[in-house]
Amino acid sequence: MLCKGLSMTKVRLGNRSVSLPGSRIARIVIGVLLVVGGVLGFLPVVGFWMLPLGILVLSIDLAPVRRLRRRVEVWWEKRRRRRNGETEKGRWTSRENGS
Fold first, then answer.
1. Considering just the CA atoms, what is the radius of gyration of the chain in Å?
2. 3-state secondary structure the chain
3. Are 87 and 97 in contact (CB under 8 A)?
4. CA-CA distance, 62 to 8, in Å (whole number)?
5. Sign of CA dihedral 26, 10, 6, 62
6. Which of 61, 21, 54, 24 is nearest to 36 (CA)?
7. What is the pTM (predicted TM-score) of this model?
């Protein structure tokens, strides 16, 4: 059995990866603090950027948050493809390729 507490968990954001503590409790505490800071984003110092980051951190350990994050990812990708004129299979529509 692997000991997950000793290794660092990494989260990839685009081309960058961020290391998180190996402890599940520490990741949950960091995630909750980021979400609370994001909710208070209208105050100085904290910002609304903390809310999605907190959800991302919480999705590592909490299945309901992970399902919500995955649904949002799928919805966002479908929306992006519709706006770019791509079909579901990744091909361009006739409007884009000039036919």
1. 18
2. CCCHHHCCEEEEECCEEEEECCCHHHHHHHHHHHHHHHHCCCCCCCCCCHHHHHHHHHCCCCHHHHHHHHHHHHHHHHHHHHHHCECCCCCECHHHHCC
3. no
4. 17
5. positive
6. 54
7. 0.63
What whole-number distance in Å separates Cα of residue 36 and Cα of residue 3? 30
User: For residues 87, 52, 60 and 15, what is the CA-based torsion angle, rounded to 10 degrees?
Assistant: 60
Tokens representing 56?
A: 């991302």
Residue type, 75: W
Q: What residue ranges of the chain have pLDDT lower than 50?
A: 1-5, 99
- Read off the pLDDT of residues 12-36 as tens digits, 9 standing for 90 and up: 777 888 788 888 899 999 999 999 9
pLDDT of residue 50: 87
